């Protein structure tokens, strides 16, 4: 019997890598989508490619989102990435990208229905990113409901499932889970503001959350940070 | 005072042309998105460009959806476009494209939030296309609800409005409304299967609905059909 297909959003970070490992452990054959959207950390696409090899994913598409669709501190070189602060609870960070997960999940949904996959995996977590409206459980529920009203599969068939296995996990728990599944986190990338060699800044929101995660997990951080960070 | 911005999905057909005229009549400054997704009727993109000039829309983006994301009779040259039949009520036509309006509206939403536009216009009608799950009022309601849960504007601000002014109009009523607003329908395109010169086949679902619409509206059809059709 063919394994059941699933579509996964693979960004190249810790969360999507761990989600891929969980989906594979559940027995799904993965079809991965990675988005290039003018993010400063384009280097994460290289990490996504490394993870595709690591997990032996046979179907991987890199999808370009045209410049100018998204405008935020993550895509606008003239806006500074916030440094040396962890975002507060319920505060929407400057690095919020308008409707990003909505657009990414919509692509995943269109592709899933085209290839008859019914499970969509996304490595969102509401714990460390509570400020992003599109990382909350209630958003994923609303997306799934909308998807099952607006598609043939939802109307005629069994419907789609938005799978968010990390949603209630802290970064340290995610890292412990991934380590237990032998994920090679040295292949992953988190920094919003890497230097030209791809070394992490060690000070942006994403680096701070990553460092704290490895520390709390009691697992050595394999990340190469810029010297002295 | 600057006019309020709106984002409109402009395909180049009768419905989106009429929707543009209605939105302009309401006083919105339009920002238009047109999608190129390997549809057989790529000529509709030329119609969209003509409509952009006709309506003097200053901001227009053509967005490529990579080949292989959507699979349907509309994008797959090896599958025949159904001819000489009007689709039945509640039947999902072969020309259904997986999650198309979901993906298009998600792009519109991301762009709208980026430019601080809160109204998204789409020329969907549930009357002549009752078979498409993503052309129904309940789908647009679910999309709007999801958008207002999953975005900063929805959580912090006044939210987004999915505007479907044609939703309860038959094609003949749409054409009468557009004619009253002086829309030049000779610029629009409907055919799913035009010949290499761009002439409409006169027999696909979309041509049949268009012909019937002009006939019932009592307005001459300016379409150039292939000879003898």
Describe this structure in words.
- The structure is a homodimer of 229-residue chains.
- Chain A has one domain (5-217): Rossmann fold, CATH 3.40.50.620.
- The termini of chain A are far apart.
- Chain A has helices at 14-25, 43-54, 100-115, 137-149, 152-156, 171-180, 205-217, and strands spanning 5-9, 29-36, 59-64, 119-121, 161-163.
- Chain A has a five-stranded parallel sheet, sandwiched between helices.
- In chain A, strand 1, helix 1 and strand 2 (29-36) form a beta-alpha-beta unit.
- By secondary structure, chain A is of the alpha/beta class.
- In chain A, helix 1 (14-25) packs across helix 6 (171-180) and helix 6 crosses helix 7 (205-217).
- The interface between A and B is large, with 44 and 45 residues.
How many discrete domains of chain A? Answer: 1
Helix count, DSSP H or I runs of 4 or more residues of chain A? 7
> Which range does the strand content of chain A fall in?
5-15%
Name the quaternary structure: homodimer
The CATH homologous superfamily of chain A is termed HUPs
Structural class of chain A: alpha/beta
Poorly predicted runs of chain A are none
Kindly provide the name of the CATH class of chain A.
Alpha Beta
Average pLDDT of chain A, to the nearest integer? 89
The helix content of chain A is 25-40%
What is the distance, rounded to the nearest whole angstrom, between the alpha carbons of the first and last residues of chain A? 50 Å
Characterize the biggest β-sheet of chain A: 5 strands, parallel
Bulk shape of chain A:
globular
């Amino acid at each position: 019997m063919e394994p059941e297909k699933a579509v996964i959003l693979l960004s190249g970070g810790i969360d999507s890598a761990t989600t891929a490992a969980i989906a594979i452990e559940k027995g799904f054959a993965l079809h991965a989508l990675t988005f290039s959207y003018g993010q400063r950390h384009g280097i994460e696409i290289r990490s996504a490619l490394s993870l595709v090899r690591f997990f032996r994913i046979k179907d991987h598409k890199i999808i370009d989102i045209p410049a100018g669709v998204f405008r935020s501190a993550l895509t606008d070189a003239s806006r500074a990435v916030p440094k040396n602060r962890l975002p507060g609870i319920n505060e929407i960070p400057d690095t919020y990208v308008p409707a990003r997960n909505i657009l990414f999940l919509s692509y995943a949904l269109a592709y899933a229905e085209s290839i008859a996959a019914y499970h969509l995996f996304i490595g969102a977590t509401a714990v460390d990113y509570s400020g992003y409206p599109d990382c909350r459980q209630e958003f994923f529920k609303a997306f799934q409901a909308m998807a099952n009203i607006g598609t043939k599969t939802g109307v005629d068939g069994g419907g789609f499932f938005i799978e968010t296995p990390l949603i209630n996990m802290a970064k340290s728990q995610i890292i412990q889970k991934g380590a237990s599944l032998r994920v090679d986190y040295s292949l992953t990338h988190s920094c919003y503001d890497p230097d030209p060699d791809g070394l992490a800044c060690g000070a942006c929101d994403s680096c701070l959350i990553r460092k704290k995660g490895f520390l709390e997990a009691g697992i050595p951080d394999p990340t190469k940070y810029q010297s002295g960070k």
